[in-house]
């Protein structure tokens, strides 16, 4: 398994195993934790500035969301410019647009400078409104874009087979193969003397007056600076209350007939659908995504795939569904990412998260911002994306709402578990949380009847995990930690697996 779920993504064939490319060094200028687009781009950029860097990855390069993304490269965002103007003012909305351009330029420059073969293609995006409500929303989006001088043009035709009310085309976007791209960056980083360790979890960290001490699978590592490119960091942080984990679902399918669109496509539903085309191993496919929900908040995650497939079959002459996978992203409460110094840090520990569905751009942008902050102590984006910006009066009601959900999750789970008291009716291929003699267990039965029994309490903040039947994982609804049926960590922030009960007292 090369990603954080049981299903294979369209990109996974390109995953490469690096192992440990590491001398006996235990001291670095910077340790970057997380082998996705954010961590690898940042490690390379810091190395280009002359810093001695170590990149740590708990599993393999591309194991996280970067291996399960759809890799549209956009400089318009899920957080629209009209929303940004209303909430933060015109100047900050313009800075957001500038950040988008810079994120895209970072990828473009890396591809051009290093001659990276990652199926990179410039694209036009089409945003289409299905119905009147979406048309009003689109008018607002266009209005915001115009106010900041961002190009969006109304169009009478789109390449996607939808009856639309109104649509715009947006030039200057792109797409690529995410795993080919990050693998190439990792190759360059290693070839230039960078240290890299896969299968190496960073379990905890401690900031001192001289730097950061990290507990890792390789023992204690010291660094002047640490960057957590792991979404949220290990331990409990303010970020766990300002960013919420969400799942999104993707299918990739061939067509029986007709032509493939050459554009990137998006409707304006809530959640919205997103589309693009990619040729994988000689087969051209439409890659469609959607059906997003908060992690742990769907009773039947498998049904999300069915709904997405039904939707696609209604509109496209679908031939074969070649891939179906889901992955995790983080929604910030104020709509902007957090890129900079970790809220609890004195200035040596950095983080980059809260990218919504725009992590290819924001992850790449983060490499420049974090490098500027670490090497020069300044960045023009320092304030707008400051992870410490959340104050009681800024989006606090949303924060409370998000936490209320977390508390509700805890209560509902406890009540729900009370109801599930018996192991008796667990069928093969099924999973359940079962309460027995005051303890609760997460149980999965394989097709051959073998039981996998775990303690069901997430070690991160003691919430109860829920079954994800689409990816065969136990997902924590509070902060997004995920575990496989053996308790192995698939997603942090937990750095402790779910405890396996090998000799069950059940
Ligand atoms: C289905 C889906 C489609 C998307 N489509 C798009 C899109 O089209 N365009 C776009 O811009 N964005 C998209 N996004 C968002 C984007 O994919 C993500 O924001 C981005 O991939 C995040 O990259 P990352 O490097 O920050 O994190 P990841 O790729 O998740 O990497 C984090 C890595 O950190 C490792 N790790 C975690 N904890 C530890 C630890 N304690 N020690 C060591 N290692 C650790 C993990 O194993 C993981 O490999 C999509 C998201 C989803 C879910």
Tag the structure with descriptive keywords.
binds flavin-adenine dinucleotide; 506 residues; 29% strand; Rieske Iron-sulfur Protein; alpha+beta; 27% helix; nine-stranded mixed sheet
Q: Mind explaining what this structure looks like?
A:
This protein has 506 residues and is an alpha+beta fold. The protein has nine helices and 25 strands. The protein has a domain at 417-491: Rieske Iron-sulfur Protein. It has helices at residues 37-48, 81-88, 90-114, 132-147, 178-191, 239-242, 301-315, 359-376, 396-419; strands at 20-21, 27-33, 53-56, 72-73, 121-129, 153-154, 166-175, 195-197, 202-207, 212-216, 219-228, 243-255, 264-267, 274-280, 283-294, 318-332, 338-341, 349-353, 431-436, 439-445, 451-455, 466-468, 473-475, 482-483, 489-491. Helix 1 packs parallel to helix 5. The longest helix has 25 residues, at 90-114. The chain starts with 19 loop residues before the first strand and ends in a 15-residue tail after the last strand. Mean pLDDT is 92; it is low at 392-397 and 410-424.
Strand content: 25-35%
Number of helices: 9
Major β-sheet, in short? 9 strands, mixed
- The CATH homologous superfamily of the domain at 417-491 is termed Rieske [2Fe-2S] iron-sulphur domain
End-to-end span in angstroms?
30 Å
Ligands, ions, cofactors: flavin-adenine dinucleotide
CATH class (first level) name of the domain at 417-491? Mainly Beta
What is the total tally of β strands?
Answer: 25
pLDDT below 50 for ≥5 consecutive residues: which ranges? 392-397, 410-424
Mean pLDDT: 92
